[in-house]
Structures are given as C-alpha cells and as structure tokens.
Amino acid sequence: MTWNNANTPLPPQRLAELLDRHAAALELFARQWCDTPEDVVQEALVDLAACIPPPDHAVAWLYRVVRNKAISAVRSARRRRRRESRVAKQRTAWFQASPDQAIDARAVTEALESLPESQREVVVARVWGGLSFEQIGRLIGATDSTAHRRYEAALSALRDKLRVPCPKTTRPNTS
Amino acid sequence: MSENNTSEHKLSDDLAAVEASLAALPPFPSGIDRDRLVYLAGQAAAGALPGTKRRPAGWLWPMATAASLLVAAALGAMLAVRSQPEIVERLVVVRQPAEPVAPAPVAAHPAVETPLARSRPSRPPAEYLRLRDLVLSRGVDALPETSAKHRPGPVWRSSDRKQIERLLGS
Fold this sequence. Notes:
With 175 residues, chain A is an all-alpha fold.
C-alpha cells in the first residue's frame, strides 16, 4: 500500500489498482455523508495522482481525503437539495445483493444507517476499507483504542439488529 | 479482518462472526469511469509536476472583478455626495479705456476727380465686346454705320460740369 518514489506522480497502474480494489468501499464510506460518492472518490483519486510525492499509505490517505470531501460536499446547498430526491433511490444500493448471502443487504444498510455516525464510519473503514485501528484513529482524530471501542460497540449494535447467528452453531451440515 | 487485530484489539467470537458476515457483503460496485479518471489523473499529475506552467489561480479574475466593482462604486459614491462648487460673487471694476482721439482728416479738400478718369470704364462695356466679336467673326465690313452724333462720348454729370467750369474760371 506504499509508494515511496519521491518527486514522481503515482503511476497509472497503481491508480487503476486502487480504483479496482478500493473504489467501491470508498464510495460506501463517502455515502454516509453525501449523495454523490462517485464524484467525491473520483476527486480524491485525482488529487492522489497530483500529489507529489505520493503519500506513504495511499489507502489511508484516500479515506481521509474522501471523508473531508464528503463532509464538505454535504454542506453544499446545491447538493443538499438533490439529496432528498436521490437518497431514497440509493438507499438499497449500498451493497451488492446476492441470494446466497447470509444476511440481507437491505437490512445491513438500514442497520448501518441507524448507527451513530462516529461508529458507522469506523465500521465501514475497518470492515470494507481494511484500515488498521491506528489508521482509523488518525482518520477520526482519536486514539486507536477509541476507534476499537467504537468498533466493538457498533458490532454489538449490529449483532442485535441483524441477529447474526454464530457460524459455529448454525452452519448447516453439508456432508 | 480478524487477522489485523492485535492482541489488545481482539474481538469476541460473536463479534468476530458479525464482522465476518459483514465482510462477506460486497459494497455496491463503483460507477467511476476508469478512462475519464485516468485522463483527469494524468492532467492533474502533469500540472503538479515541477517546472510545468500552472494556470492562474481560479480566484484571480473574481478578485479583479470585485476590485473593479469596488472602485467603481466608490467613485460613484464620491460623485453622488460631492458638494456643489461654491459660487462667490465678486465685484470687479473694469475701467473703460479712454476714448481714442479722432484722427485728423488727411485731406482738407476732396480729391479732384477728373472727367477723364471718371469717363474711363473700369471694364470693357458690353457693346464693345459685342462689336469686337462681330469684327473677329465677320470682318470690319460687318460693323454698323454710325454717325458722329451717335458716337458715344463721355457722359458729364452736372456736378462734374460745374467743377470744370469753376476750374476754368468761367
């Protein structure tokens, strides 16, 4: 996740790799605040390309920039006006639904939306972004212990809302 | 995600199960246009490289416009609130210059106008010109016969005649 070649921009291959691996999770992360996550993530990736030298931890850098841009975007009056009409359409589009999933995508979306913002952003950054608690702590301006506590609280709330069964006890016997 | 947990950040089994269930749910695919992104990224990277000519800042023209409007508004306000020039009535005495002395008459007597000078036409008479054209075109024989009494002579005015008689002492 690091790129240490100073005074040269991020190579296009690396940018494409980041797009393929992290764009969906970044959009999910940005969608917590704004209704234009694609624009926000694209702007962040373009900013990353113009960043010379590139940051050491590009993914963590992207999450921080996406967070700032998403929060700024939601303050825009123009986008806020469109938000009301678009949020309803995109409410079920947070996750890619599949019939063989253990939990329902829509239920997860609603459960995440019911979480406090401080817990929800930690869950998204951790589960789908793959950031460490140290990186999440820097992202939210707190310590890694604080990030972990919020993460545990969020998972507990999600467990209660989703009633996720323990895989060891409920997994059907396939033999 | 459990492999990233340190010992102090270890999750309980039930929470780890929730975490694993969530992680199995893929986010909705991104709709970012890859080609457009690469193009924009290349453009941004080229602009960020040292030595490249940067475009003027986006705030330059708005600031110049705002400054111009401010100056125009200030000048307009100055024009509106400017006091009218004060009218000062001042009595100016202008002395009339002395009337110039009338020049003495150059000659006490009027110039004597001779009959010859008076009889000399200033320009050729029309009759003379007509006769000249007639002679030039048809010859001398074409001239009409004229008697001596009909020959034009000097025309004397009565004043001229009196003046001539006075000079002659008659």
